[in-house]
Predict the structure.
Amino acid sequence: MSISVVYPTYLSAVVEPSKVVEIAQKLNSMGFDHVKSVTGIDFLEENKIVVVYHVSSFEDDELAQFILELKTSVDRLNPRIKSLIEIWPSAEFPERETTDLMGVTFDGQPKKERLMLIDNFEGGPPLRKDFKLKTEGIDA
Amino acid sequence: MRLVAEVDGDIIIAFEPNIGYVHRAVEKIAETKTYLQIIPLVERPMLPDTASANLGYILALEKLLDVEIPQRAQYLRMLLCEMSRIHSHLYGLGIFGNMIGSSTMFEWAFADREPFLELTQQWTGARLTASFMVPGGVRRDLPPDFTGKVLKAVAYMEQRLKDYDKIFVNNPVTIARLNGVGVIKKSEAARLGIVGPNLRASGVAYDTRKVEPYCAYGDVDFELVVREEGDCYARLLVRREEMKQSIKLIRQILDKLPSGPFFAEKYAKLINPKMKALMDQSGILRFPAVFSSLKPAKGDAISRVEAGRGELFYYIVSDGTAQPYRFRMVTPSFKNVIAFKSALLGARLADVPSVYGSLDYFPPEADR
Amino acid sequence: MENAGGTQNLKNAKNNFEKTIRKVGKRKPFSSVRNWGISFSLWPVHFTTACCGTEFAAAFCPRYDAERFGVLPFVGTRQCNVIFIEGTLTKKMAEAAKIVYDQMPEPKFVIAMGACAIDGGIFWNSYNIVRPHEILPIDAYITGCPPRPEGVLKGLIMTQEKIRKRGTPYPES
């Protein structure tokens, strides 16, 4: 795991997928009590999807100034990662949105229905880079 | 949105919100537009409170562009945000009154939004979607004798808050319907991740303007409004009290407004000299040519601001080209969806409108 | 047997009466009165589609006061005769909009409000939206993003004039 300081209140850490749950439990006991967002970034050439968690604190005054970012990579053809909903209940809706729009499966999420899209949506997960939209001036 | 409730007689035993009816894919469309074209796109989900959406995006972008904003522009940005907060809370109170049956509150609240929308229009040119803040500063300076009009509007609003007390807030019907309904306890509120006045009504003293002061919020002083009960009535009182704090902030901002330029020097020297002369004469910004394809540095940037409904979070991943690689926007209403599940367990079916109105949920904002 | 004949005569008389009423009702003084009545009692369904709903609600506030035109937003679909498509129609919402439109009784009207309801607006290349004119027959378009409340009133007045000038069809049984 490696940590870097992007600017004084924003810390970024790259972790391996197998260690995420352990690190999340440690952060929870330190005082980071909620997840601000769960993002998926698609890298088509490198064949990976990077899942990013942003965590911070509401109740601890000193930790509330910092936002800590946890980045893990999963394989693009079979993106599965353990869900952090047991440790941080606030991750429920952001994780369900990432499953719906990016196609990443979180093991441990109780609800399997889609959140944002209709049930018979065609064309694969929309936020991936191979799902193209029309752009003005090029093909519209 | 669609709410699915499982009831046993009249008591709710499970509650599930079904969202996604206004999902217009702002995040995907932002990958096909240039950085300046994203400004109107980002304002549309948060229509009652567009100034904060605009400000949050510009703060994240300026971290990648490395530009210094003049003091007068910081104060003007704060002024628009506070005026926007007042009419966003009035919208919330109006819809809340309509949901529990008080159409007088609905009509009064919407009528009292009009002075602030009229002032916004005289200043920026549009009622709601002003698109006023650009990287480097703001787009217009204050018109002449604007300060007097704003002070008159806030004095009128202070008088009206007393009328609202008589007709809605201290009304025995309101108190009977809202007292003790939809309680979210303090220990749950922080762990569920809810934000904004809902969090402050449950006892957690958290406001992004105090934790990480952006613009010039470190130089002005206001109090955090916190209540302990966590029920619908507490949320109503927090919103009403926050409007008073915004009025106090507006008076301080107009008092301390410094003089100077309203656009950063780094970009102002790139404007064509003829256009610059027009700009100094009329007080309206003319864009430099570099804005048509702004290329910020490669890297990540985040920013958070306190909108009317709670904390708004932006995350931009840029790869050095004119379009962002990944654009993430997490709105306060999306974080508040989870409050529906826990606030309504054990309540009666007729309490659903009270809780919905008190959480001030705006569906286009949650689904983006 | 006698009663059967009596019932048949009653049915014939009723059918003839209805045919006469329809023929006479399409003529000048009666149809004008009917159209005048319909145009001043258009009740929209409470069906907020997207962000234009903010300015639609503002059109009912005391400054612009749409209720003086006879418009009253109502919650039951069976008692309403106009539907405002406020803003973008996503795929999930389009299914609900079609169901609500089918539940309304005839004669009914549709007013499309905002740039998104005309041809997609600022979200024209989104993967999740539907153009309203592909699923519903639209009577008036209101431009703007969001339209000013005066624009909403103008769209309403245009629909009222259209009803009075061109009339509305009788629903054929």
Observations:
- Chain C has two domains: 1-39, 42-166.
